[in-house]
Structure formats: structure tokens, C-alpha cells
Amino acid sequence: MSDIQEATNQLLDVNLHENWSSIQVTESGPRSESEHLQVTIGATVPTGFEQTAADEVREKLGSSCKISKDRGKIYFDISVESLAQVHCLRSVDNLFVVVKEFKDYQFKETKEEVLKDFEELAGKLPWSDPLKVWKINTNFKKKKTKRKKINQNTDSHILDYYENPAIKEEISTLVGDDLASYKDEKDESSKEETHPKMLKFRVTCNRAGEKHCFSSNEAARDFGGAVQDYFKWKADMTNFDVEVLLNIHDSEIVVGIALTEESLHRRNITHFGPTTLRSTLAYGMLRLCAPQPTDIIVDPMCGTGAIPIEGATEWSNCYHIAGDNNPLAVDRAANNISSLLTKSQIKEGEVSWGLPIDAVQWDICNLPLRTGTVDIIVTDMPFGKRMGSKKRNWNLYPACLREMSRVCRPGTGRAALLTQDKKCFTKALSGMGHVWRKVHTVWVNIGGLHAAVYLLKRTPQAFVHPSEQDGERTPW
Ligand SMILES: C[S@@+](CC[C@H](N)C(=O)[O-])C[C@H]1O[C@@H](n2cnc3c(N)ncnc32)[C@H](O)[C@@H]1O
User: The THUMP domain covers which part of the protein (predicted)?
Assistant: First the structure.
């Protein structure tokens, strides 16, 4: 049997579990071949948080992870039974199943030769297991989407400017038949109801590295053409079933099949603001602080509440406080909390006891919190670009750090603070060595901006307010 026949037959043979849960339920019953599948999963994660994501994978799936040279990616092996758990990871943005990895791909000299090799590659790849996993994943997603449509009538209009990253690498997609009109598509979908479906696909090429003699567009076009010939699939850029990924980073090539259509970071938030933080980054920042049961965790500049909301869903044995001085931001955070509560009530089908979170309007420079009562502060400070101004940061940052040191528990308190205004932050921190110790810096890329997350530990030194020394102020 030829490779192609085998791949196609195996794809058709896949046990199309009507119900995803049956995959887990069959533990004691007879198992289909597909349930023993071992595959490598690739995940894109916020750059800088690769190690955090690898730790999460190890903790939740028991798999060890490989961190790619290509920043922002990790790889780990799973058996297909764990696929549902993979979708529950909090630190990953997008998931794909690896078809083949070439650690040191030897590119030929000329563009023509390289592109010819890409064409030949399509027919030589071990597609069958990754396609089985894709199929199982698709059925799982269909069920989820169906549930989501029933449960959600929220408008998730996205204003997230982090969604528009000025990434250096090129991203190109093989464009399907431009002539296919909307009418054709409608006819097609009604035809699909009566005839077996021909799969539609696209190839997306992500290329990073200086030394390539071809563009990502050319690679996607030629590799995509060969995939089309090999499988007899139909190319369609927008309405595709299968997205084949061709990730090229210097001499490393990974061919994969996407398992997520949109990034998994779009969870929890329904009311977006101008600087909404990715939930995956929020998770990474919280995780850096290692929350413990009963910890009080505060985001004093919460905006839409992405950080405390992620905290309340993942660390529900802690108490989370979200505050901001802008009433619009507090409203958005409150609306996000309320949407999440409604969603969880519908899901559980019963009255929920709520989430361990409150939203308050306050000024970070004068928090209505007792001295030394907060265990963890996690916040995303105004960069001085979209939010505030660099000039204002020179007053705001030292005042923030001082007030945070007052409310944070001496000796055990910790903080993860994100900013792009590193110069101002470093200067402000340099005058606070007696209350804050810098433990670690994670360099992150936020929508093309080079930013940093500073992990700080509160020193054991008690906070003394300057005016207290003159007996002018009574501590809370
Ligand atoms: C970068 S945004 C935070 C975005 C947030 N992480 C989110 O996901 O939407 C910074 C926030 O700091 C708030 N802020 C600025 N100055 C403040 C102050 N003095 N007190 C409290 N919040 C302040 C702004 O209103 C803004 O919402």
C-alpha cells in the first residue's frame, strides 16, 4: 500500500468518537488503535515564559518539555488520551501536532533548488498519526464550539492591541482560489451535506532567520502546492479544515498541523480595553510568584482585570483584589467577572458561590489596605505609550513601589511587575533596596515592544512611612 493510501485509510479509519469524553471513559474497555497514539505537540507561548510553560506541562501532564531555539515555542510528547488536558494548559497560546522536525535542515544553494526540495518533502512526511490526532481534536473542538454557541451570547469584540504584534518573522499563507465567490461557498456547503466532504486546507509558513534565499510566501506556495497534489485537498485560505504549518527558524524546520484556530489566550475576557493583557501572560506572571492557598493577591492597576481574573479561576483558594483609578477600567473588570460567573453558572447548571475576587476603584499611591497584609502583587504598569506618559511614570513608579512595599508582607511578600519603561523602573527600584530585592527578570515581547517582568521579593524590613516618623500619620 502506498504512503498516501495508508495515510488516507488511516484517516478514514480513525475512531470518530461521537463524544470526547468516551476517549477517557474507555480506560477499562476495549481500546482502539488511535488511543495508543504517541505524538509530539508543539505550543506557542508568550516569549520569555517558555520555562514557566514547560513547568506547567511537567506538572499537569507529567511530560518533559523541550524549549525550542525558536523563542516562544515548546515541544512535548503525549499519548492521545491526554489531548483534552493539553487544551486545559493555561500558559500556551496555540497548539499544533508535529509531523516532522528537522533540527539541521540542509538548504540547497539556489532558491529554485530549495523550493523543489520543499515540493518533494510533502510526499515524504509521516502524516498519518498527526492527521489522526488532528481528526480527534477536530471532533473535540466541534463539540466545544457547539456548547459555546449555546452557552454564550456575548460579544467578544477584540480591541486588544497586543494582538497586533510587530513580529520580525514573516508569516505567509498559501492563498486559495481567489475566484471562489461567496455564492460558490454557499453552494459548496449545501453540497457537502449530501456528498462526502473534500478537505480544505491552507499552509502557513512562519520564517525567521537571515540566511534564507526564499521568502515565506514562496515556501508556503510551493510546499502547499505539493501538499495539495499529494492529498488531493482543496486550498482555501479562509475556510479551511486543516492548517499545515511550515515553521522555519534558521536551519531548524518543523512541519505541523494546527490544533487551535484561535489563540487559547482569549479566555475569560469579554469586555476588552485598550491594553488588555493576554491571559497566558497573566498566568505566567502569577505563576512566577508561586501562589499558596489563602494568599491575598492584588493587582492594583488591573485595567480589564485580566490578571486577577486569571488568578481567581486558576488559584481559587486565594483571594484576589482588582483595583484601578479609572472608573471605566473598574467597570470593565466588574463586567468581565460577572460574565465569567454567568458562564460558570450555565456550565455547572447550578447557582455558583461566586469567584474569590473583588473589583475596587482606588489610587495605587494611596491604597485602602492595611500595612503588611498582601502576599502577592501582580500588575501590568502603564508603559507610558498607550496608557499614561513616560514623563508621568517618573513620579508614578517610585510612588507605586513605595505604596506596594507598605501593603506587602515583609519577609514573604513578592511582586511580579510588567513594564516596558525599564529605565524609569530601574531608577525607581534603585532607591528601594531596603524594601524590595530583585530576584529575576523575564524579558518579554508585548506586541513588538521589548518589555520586562520584574520578580521582586519584599525584604523583612518593616515599612516606615516618612510622615510617621514625625507622628503625623496613623498607620491603617
Ligand atoms: C497597562 S494598563 C493595565 C492593563 C491590564 N493588565 C488589562 O489587562 O487590562 C495600566 C492600568 O493602570 C491604571 N492606572 C494608571 N495610574 C493609576 C493609578 N494612579 N492608580 C491605579 N491605577 C492606575 C490605568 O488606568 C490602566 O488601566
Answer: 143-259
